[in-house]
Amino acid sequence: MLTHDEKEKIRQHIDRLIKSLRIDALSSGLEGRALLDQTVRATVNRLTPESKMLLSGVYNILVKKTLAKQLYSIPRNQAAFYELNILTELNEKFVFDIPAQIDYEESRAALNKWVGSGAVMVVGGVISITMKTLMPVGIAALIVAVMAILLRDGISWRAGIARKDSDTVLLDAYFQNVTQSLCAWVDSIDAYYDEKISALERKLVE
Question: What is the pTM of this model?
Protein backbone atom coordinates (compact mmCIF):
# COMPACT_ATOMS: atom_id res chain seq x y z
CA MET A 1 0.00 0.00 0.00
CA LEU A 2 1.29 3.46 -0.84
CA THR A 3 2.12 5.63 2.16
CA HIS A 4 0.83 9.17 2.58
CA ASP A 5 4.28 10.52 1.65
CA GLU A 6 4.45 8.37 -1.48
CA LYS A 7 0.99 9.51 -2.56
CA GLU A 8 1.99 13.11 -1.90
CA LYS A 9 5.09 12.80 -4.10
CA ILE A 10 2.96 11.34 -6.89
CA ARG A 11 0.44 14.15 -6.45
CA GLN A 12 3.24 16.74 -6.65
CA HIS A 13 4.51 15.11 -9.85
CA ILE A 14 1.04 15.25 -11.38
CA ASP A 15 0.64 18.86 -10.22
CA ARG A 16 3.88 19.85 -11.96
CA LEU A 17 2.71 18.27 -15.22
CA ILE A 18 -0.65 20.04 -15.00
CA LYS A 19 0.95 23.38 -14.11
CA SER A 20 3.17 23.15 -17.19
CA LEU A 21 0.18 22.33 -19.40
CA ARG A 22 -1.85 25.20 -17.94
CA ILE A 23 0.97 27.72 -18.53
CA ASP A 24 1.30 26.57 -22.14
CA ALA A 25 -2.46 26.79 -22.67
CA LEU A 26 -2.86 30.29 -21.25
CA SER A 27 0.14 31.63 -23.15
CA SER A 28 -0.95 30.17 -26.51
CA GLY A 29 -2.88 33.27 -27.56
CA LEU A 30 -5.85 31.12 -28.56
CA GLU A 31 -9.41 31.63 -27.37
CA GLY A 32 -12.70 29.78 -27.33
CA ARG A 33 -13.02 26.34 -28.88
CA ALA A 34 -9.58 26.56 -30.52
CA LEU A 35 -8.02 27.01 -27.07
CA LEU A 36 -9.99 24.14 -25.58
CA ASP A 37 -9.19 21.77 -28.44
CA GLN A 38 -5.48 22.63 -28.36
CA THR A 39 -5.37 22.24 -24.59
CA VAL A 40 -7.05 18.85 -24.65
CA ARG A 41 -4.78 17.68 -27.47
CA ALA A 42 -1.67 18.81 -25.56
CA THR A 43 -2.97 17.16 -22.38
CA VAL A 44 -3.62 13.88 -24.18
CA ASN A 45 -0.20 13.94 -25.84
CA ARG A 46 1.56 14.60 -22.53
CA LEU A 47 -0.46 12.62 -20.01
CA THR A 48 -1.17 9.43 -21.98
CA PRO A 49 2.49 8.28 -22.05
CA GLU A 50 3.03 9.80 -18.61
CA SER A 51 0.20 7.64 -17.30
CA LYS A 52 1.91 4.49 -18.55
CA MET A 53 5.14 5.52 -16.82
CA LEU A 54 3.17 6.42 -13.70
CA LEU A 55 1.56 2.99 -13.63
CA SER A 56 4.95 1.33 -13.94
CA GLY A 57 6.44 3.60 -11.27
CA VAL A 58 3.63 2.91 -8.79
CA TYR A 59 3.92 -0.82 -9.46
CA ASN A 60 7.68 -0.77 -8.84
CA ILE A 61 7.21 1.04 -5.51
CA LEU A 62 4.63 -1.54 -4.43
CA VAL A 63 6.73 -4.51 -5.56
CA LYS A 64 9.76 -3.30 -3.63
CA LYS A 65 7.67 -3.05 -0.46
CA THR A 66 6.07 -6.45 -1.03
CA LEU A 67 9.31 -8.34 -1.63
CA ALA A 68 10.89 -6.72 1.44
CA LYS A 69 8.49 -8.71 3.63
CA GLN A 70 9.89 -11.73 5.45
CA LEU A 71 7.24 -13.90 3.79
CA TYR A 72 8.95 -13.49 0.42
CA SER A 73 12.38 -14.52 1.64
CA ILE A 74 11.17 -18.05 0.88
CA PRO A 75 11.91 -18.77 -2.81
CA ARG A 76 8.60 -20.54 -3.52
CA ASN A 77 6.65 -17.58 -2.13
CA GLN A 78 8.63 -15.17 -4.26
CA ALA A 79 7.97 -17.39 -7.29
CA ALA A 80 4.25 -17.35 -6.47
CA PHE A 81 4.35 -13.57 -6.43
CA TYR A 82 5.96 -13.35 -9.87
CA GLU A 83 3.46 -15.87 -11.24
CA LEU A 84 0.70 -13.37 -10.48
CA ASN A 85 2.14 -11.10 -13.18
CA ILE A 86 0.20 -8.13 -11.81
CA LEU A 87 1.89 -5.58 -14.06
CA THR A 88 0.71 -7.41 -17.18
CA GLU A 89 -2.82 -7.52 -15.74
CA LEU A 90 -2.71 -3.79 -15.03
CA ASN A 91 -1.43 -2.95 -18.51
CA GLU A 92 -4.18 -5.06 -20.06
CA LYS A 93 -6.81 -2.98 -18.25
CA PHE A 94 -5.77 0.21 -20.05
CA VAL A 95 -5.12 1.44 -23.57
CA PHE A 96 -2.33 3.99 -23.87
CA ASP A 97 -2.73 4.77 -27.58
CA ILE A 98 -2.92 8.43 -28.58
CA PRO A 99 -5.79 9.10 -31.03
CA ALA A 100 -5.19 10.87 -34.32
CA GLN A 101 -7.84 13.45 -33.49
CA ILE A 102 -9.84 14.68 -30.51
CA ASP A 103 -13.46 13.56 -30.62
CA TYR A 104 -15.57 14.68 -27.66
CA GLU A 105 -18.67 12.77 -28.71
CA GLU A 106 -16.75 9.55 -29.24
CA SER A 107 -15.02 9.90 -25.88
CA ARG A 108 -18.30 10.70 -24.18
CA ALA A 109 -19.87 7.58 -25.75
CA ALA A 110 -16.91 5.47 -24.57
CA LEU A 111 -17.29 6.94 -21.08
CA ASN A 112 -20.99 6.09 -21.01
CA LYS A 113 -20.14 2.52 -22.05
CA TRP A 114 -17.54 2.21 -19.29
CA VAL A 115 -19.92 3.67 -16.71
CA GLY A 116 -22.61 1.21 -17.83
CA SER A 117 -20.21 -1.73 -17.47
CA GLY A 118 -19.05 -0.61 -14.04
CA ALA A 119 -15.52 0.14 -15.25
CA VAL A 120 -15.62 3.77 -14.17
CA MET A 121 -17.61 6.12 -11.96
CA VAL A 122 -18.07 9.84 -12.54
CA VAL A 123 -18.67 12.20 -9.61
CA GLY A 124 -18.53 15.95 -10.09
CA GLY A 125 -16.63 15.63 -13.35
CA VAL A 126 -13.93 13.45 -11.74
CA ILE A 127 -13.56 10.00 -13.30
CA SER A 128 -12.63 7.06 -11.06
CA ILE A 129 -11.71 3.64 -12.45
CA THR A 130 -13.07 0.67 -10.50
CA MET A 131 -10.66 -1.95 -11.95
CA LYS A 132 -13.44 -4.55 -11.83
CA THR A 133 -13.93 -4.81 -15.57
CA LEU A 134 -12.36 -6.90 -18.30
CA MET A 135 -13.04 -4.08 -20.77
CA PRO A 136 -9.84 -2.05 -21.41
CA VAL A 137 -10.21 1.64 -20.61
CA GLY A 138 -8.55 4.18 -22.90
CA ILE A 139 -6.54 6.75 -20.96
CA ALA A 140 -6.68 9.30 -23.80
CA ALA A 141 -10.45 8.92 -24.05
CA LEU A 142 -10.79 9.58 -20.32
CA ILE A 143 -8.71 12.76 -20.60
CA VAL A 144 -10.93 13.95 -23.45
CA ALA A 145 -14.10 12.87 -21.64
CA VAL A 146 -13.31 15.17 -18.70
CA MET A 147 -13.62 18.14 -21.08
CA ALA A 148 -16.68 16.62 -22.74
CA ILE A 149 -18.39 16.51 -19.34
CA LEU A 150 -17.52 20.15 -18.66
CA LEU A 151 -18.69 21.29 -22.09
CA ARG A 152 -21.98 19.52 -21.53
CA ASP A 153 -22.53 20.58 -17.91
CA GLY A 154 -20.72 23.92 -17.79
CA ILE A 155 -22.98 26.07 -19.98
CA SER A 156 -25.07 27.47 -17.14
CA TRP A 157 -22.29 28.34 -14.72
CA ARG A 158 -20.37 30.12 -17.51
CA ALA A 159 -23.29 32.37 -18.39
CA GLY A 160 -22.57 36.04 -17.87
CA ILE A 161 -18.77 35.57 -17.70
CA ALA A 162 -16.62 37.36 -20.27
CA ARG A 163 -15.39 34.95 -22.94
CA LYS A 164 -11.71 35.12 -22.02
CA ASP A 165 -12.48 34.73 -18.33
CA SER A 166 -14.87 31.94 -19.20
CA ASP A 167 -12.08 30.12 -21.04
CA THR A 168 -9.81 30.41 -18.00
CA VAL A 169 -12.51 29.20 -15.62
CA LEU A 170 -13.26 26.23 -17.85
CA LEU A 171 -9.58 25.32 -18.24
CA ASP A 172 -9.01 25.57 -14.49
CA ALA A 173 -11.96 23.25 -13.89
CA TYR A 174 -10.63 20.90 -16.55
CA PHE A 175 -7.13 20.72 -15.13
CA GLN A 176 -8.46 20.29 -11.60
CA ASN A 177 -10.66 17.39 -12.69
CA VAL A 178 -7.87 15.78 -14.72
CA THR A 179 -5.58 16.03 -11.68
CA GLN A 180 -8.18 14.46 -9.40
CA SER A 181 -8.95 11.76 -11.97
CA LEU A 182 -5.26 10.82 -12.26
CA CYS A 183 -4.91 10.70 -8.46
CA ALA A 184 -8.03 8.52 -8.24
CA TRP A 185 -6.52 6.30 -10.94
CA VAL A 186 -3.34 5.87 -8.87
CA ASP A 187 -5.50 4.97 -5.86
CA SER A 188 -7.30 2.33 -7.93
CA ILE A 189 -3.97 0.79 -8.99
CA ASP A 190 -2.84 0.75 -5.36
CA ALA A 191 -6.10 -0.86 -4.20
CA TYR A 192 -6.07 -3.46 -7.00
CA TYR A 193 -2.48 -4.43 -6.22
CA ASP A 194 -3.24 -4.73 -2.50
CA GLU A 195 -6.25 -6.91 -3.21
CA LYS A 196 -4.15 -9.27 -5.35
CA ILE A 197 -1.34 -9.45 -2.77
CA SER A 198 -3.72 -9.98 0.14
CA ALA A 199 -5.34 -12.91 -1.67
CA LEU A 200 -1.91 -14.40 -2.43
CA GLU A 201 -0.66 -14.02 1.12
CA ARG A 202 -3.74 -15.70 2.56
CA LYS A 203 -2.93 -18.72 0.41
CA LEU A 204 0.76 -18.66 1.30
CA VAL A 205 0.13 -18.80 5.05
CA GLU A 206 -2.58 -21.47 4.95
Answer: 0.90
